[in-house]
């Protein structure tokens, strides 16, 4: 009985040692990846015209990196303009897009198609094709029409500086057996207030082997915040202030024209 107990204890000890080694190896594999978003608190004030966000950290040597910045998924719409009655240009159709981020930035060490499999892109929503399959568009009939309108949606977002996919803009530096990465992204003034997620994916053999997250907070400040709060909580006062501002602006323009002798 005693020998059986000793054998059992030795077996349990060996089993726990194996579990410990496995846990240690997993921690060592994932502990190398870090992320830091510099300038992670952007304030929209009266003089705001956009900003920059740098993303940096440590990763395992010999790995590629993909950095994604996204907003929470939401509903968005596009309005198609056309001539009504052959005379007036008006909104003739509205395209509804569901489960789509208002901002979508991708940067990588190399072309994403060269370093990541299609299955992994789909899994982590990396790249426009994966995003297209994820979102819902209506009214749309058939995949060809969905592709057409999704491409139009992306063109609109890229023109608004809210969508961007690029490669080769994540710099890598190896030193003392460690790999550092760095990238700098322009933050558009068109991005609305909110919390944005920054994710770095560590890639090897066309698979994501680790990832880390950080956040960028964009919020209104000063006079902009006061006016925004007034428009939501006291619409009457905000309307009166807007009218006074418009009258004041018109009066100022009138004075300028009067001093200059009027328009010619």
Count of discrete alpha- or pi-helical segments spanning 4 or more residues: 7
Order of helices and strands: HEEEEEEEHHHEHEEEEEHH
Strand content: 35-45%
Strands of the biggest beta sheet: in what spatial order? Answer: 2-13-12-4-7-9
Coarse morphology: flat
Task: Compute the number of strand runs.
Answer: 13
What count of domains describes the coordinates? 2
CA-based gyration radius: 27 Å
The rounded distance between the terminal residues' Cα atoms is 113 Å
Poorly predicted regions are 4-8, 11-31
Tell me, rounded to a whole number, the average pLDDT.
Answer: 79
Largest sheet properties: 6 strands, mixed
**Helical content band:** 25-40%
Structural class: alpha+beta
Report on the structure:
- This protein folds into two domains: 1-31; 33-220, no CATH class.
- The protein is built from seven helices and 13 strands.
- Helix 3 packs across helix 4 (128-134) and helix 6 (222-233) crosses helix 7 (235-259).
- The radius of gyration is 27 Å and the shape is flat.
- By secondary structure, the protein is of the alpha+beta class.
């Amino acid at each position: 009985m005693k020998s059986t107990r000793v054998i059992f204890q030795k077996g349990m000890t060996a089993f726990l040692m194996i579990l410990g080694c496995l846990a240690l190896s997993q921690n060592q594999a994932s502990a190398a990846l870090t992320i830091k978003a510099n300038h992670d608190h952007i304030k929209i004030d009266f003089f705001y015209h956009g900003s920059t966000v740098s993303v940096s950290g440590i990763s395992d040597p010999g790995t590629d990196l993909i950095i994604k910045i996204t907003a929470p998924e939401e509903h968005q719409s596009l309005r198609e303009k056309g001539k009504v009655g052959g005379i007036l240009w008006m909104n003739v159709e509205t395209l509804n897009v569901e489960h789509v981020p208002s901002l979508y930035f991708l940067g990588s060490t190399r072309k994403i198609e060269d370093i990541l499999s299609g299955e992994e892109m789909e899994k982590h929503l990396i790249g426009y094709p994966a995003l297209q399959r994820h979102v819902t568009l209506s009214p749309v009939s058939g995949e060809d029409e969905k592709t057409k309108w999704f491409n139009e949606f992306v063109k609109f977002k890229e023109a608004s500086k809210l969508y961007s996919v690029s490669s080769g803009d994540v710099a890598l530096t190896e030193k003392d057996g460690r790999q550092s990465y760095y990238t700098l992204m322009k933050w558009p003034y068109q991005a609305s207030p909110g919390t944005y997620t920054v994710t770095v994916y560590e890639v090897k053999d066309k698979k994501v082997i680790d990832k880390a997250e950080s956040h960028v907070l964009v919020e209104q400040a000063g006079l902009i915040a006061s006016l925004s709060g007034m428009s939501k909580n006291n619409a009457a006062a905000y309307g009166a202030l807007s009218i006074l501002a418009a009258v004041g602006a018109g009066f100022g323009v009138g004075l300028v024209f009067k001093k200059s002798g009027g328009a010619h």
